[in-house]
Amino acid sequence: MLLNSDLWVSALIRRAEIAGANATVVRRGDGRAGTVIVKAYDTSTREARLFTEAFGQDGDRLWIQPVTGTESELDTYIDRQRGYDPDIWVVEVEDRQGRHFITEKVEGEGGGSVANP
User: Fold this and answer.
1) What pLDDT, in 10s, does the model give residues 80-115?
2) Is the distance from CB of 110 to CB of 57 less than 8 angstroms?
3) Which residues contact 28 (CB under 8 A, 6 or more apart)?
4) How far apart are CA 93 and CA 71, in angstroms?
5) Could you write out the three-class secondary structure of the chain?
6) Which of 7, 8, 54, 76, CA to CA, is 20 to 30 A from 30?
7) What percentage of the chain carries pLDDT values higher than 90?
8) Rg (the chain; Cα; Å)
9) Taking CA 12 as the corner, what is the angle to CA 103 and CA 85, rounded to the nearest 5 degrees?
């Protein structure tokens, strides 16, 4: 069974805080089923990556990087998604190592554990 979006976001923020990173809810969506977007900002390189929640064929939550580019381009993507879906969550994570703190599989990243930035 999948966690509700609000619980999942709370757990992500807690993992980030425990590791010494900063995580902030920029946009609060539907507490039960709102799609989550995570923007991971590497404070040492000043680069950002974007991760969007998706679901695999088995129904498990996984994450994809829907777009790459400058931080401005990522913000434009987020704004566009907010226009399509008013229930989305947007969480920004700032970390010196660029970690996203997503524990589920991240497509193209070999497992997506917290250890993988």
Assistant:
1) 999 999 999 999 999 999 999 999 989 876 443 333
2) no
3) 89
4) 13
5) CCCCHHHHHHHHHHHHHHCCCEEEEEECCCCCCCCEEEEEEECCCCEEEEEEEEECCCCCEEEECCCCCCHHHHHHHHHHHHHHCCCCEEEEEEECCCCCCCCCCECCCCCCCCCCC
6) 76
7) 71
8) 13
9) 100
Number of residues written out for the chain: 117
Which amino acid belongs to residue 24? Answer: T
Domain ranges of the chain: 5-95
Q: What is the per-residue pLDDT across 31-47, written as a single tens digit (0 to 9) for each? A: 788 899 999 999 999 99
Which is nearest to 36 in space by CA: 59, 17, 11?
A: 11
For the chain, the farthest-separated pair of C-alpha atoms sits apart, in whole angstroms, at 37
**In angstroms, rounded to a whole number, what is the distance separating the alpha carbons of residues 67 and 84?**
16
